[in-house]
Design brief:
- The radius of gyration is 29 Å and the shape is extended.
- The mean pLDDT is 82.
- The longest helix has 24 residues, at 96-119.
- The chain has a four-stranded antiparallel beta sheet with strand order 2-1-3-4.
- The chain has 189 residues and is α+β, with helices and mostly antiparallel strands.
- The protein has helices at 2-9, 11-22, 96-119, 128-148, 161-172, and strands at residues 28-36, 48-54, 64-71, 86-91.
- Helix 3 packs antiparallel against helix 4 (128-148).
């Protein structure tokens, strides 16, 4: 906690906070908590922790826990409650897709569904509600698919030299290779 307090009092961060409060084009400020574990898994050395405050909303790493403070208006007013002017969003150190999926499926979609039901928007025949529900469902499904997407490495097949020779011979003769073109007696083939 002392590290975060020290970071918040530094002149560059103080300037970022002032921009966040007063400049309309700055919509968010992020607190990124970096954790670096010891190289030796059996070491008793506690993890190294550092903080970085930034105005840029961007992906950093799965080793970073982020809290985003999102400004609801164009600037923060001292006469209004802070809780009515700022929203927070937490992204944990898990997969970014998992964090986003959790936010969408466990918070945003249920709040939206509850709102349209209680406000009567669904009963009013509002044409946008079904469309938005469909888009939310597609987003949720897409995030699940991205979580499950496994990179399959490109396979490089080594073709036996006799097979390559038979294919090249057939190409020169402008024909397709036939079984007779291959020496099936060769056990290395």
């Amino acid at each position: 906690m002392l590290l975060l307090q020290k970071e918040l009092k530094s002149p560059p961060v103080y300037g970022m906070i002032e921009k966040f409060i007063g400049e309309p084009q700055v919509h968010a400020i992020l607190d990124n908590r970096h954790t670096k574990d010891s190289e030796d898994p059996e070491s008793d050395i506690p993890p190294e922790i550092s903080y970085a405050i930034t105005l840029d909303i961007q992906y950093v790493s799965n080793k970073v826990m982020t809290v985003a403070f999102i400004k609801r208006g164009t600037h923060i007013e001292s006469t209004k409650q802070l809780t009515r002017q700022i929203q927070t969003m937490h992204l944990s150190q898990e997969s970014t897709y998992e964090s986003l999926h959790a936010l969408i499926s466990s918070a945003i979609i249920p709040i939206f569904n509850s709102f349209v039901t209680k406000s009567g928007k669904l009963d009013d025949g509002d044409k946008m509600v079904p469309s938005i529900k469909k888009n939310f469902a597609e987003l949720e499904t897409g995030l699940v698919h991205l979580q499950q997407n496994i990179d399959i490495p490109e396979i490089n097949l080594v073709i036996h030299p006799q097979i390559l020779a038979a294919i090249k011979k057939a190409e020169r003769e402008k024909s397709k290779p036939k079984a007779q073109d291959f020496d099936v007696e060769d056990s290395t083939l």
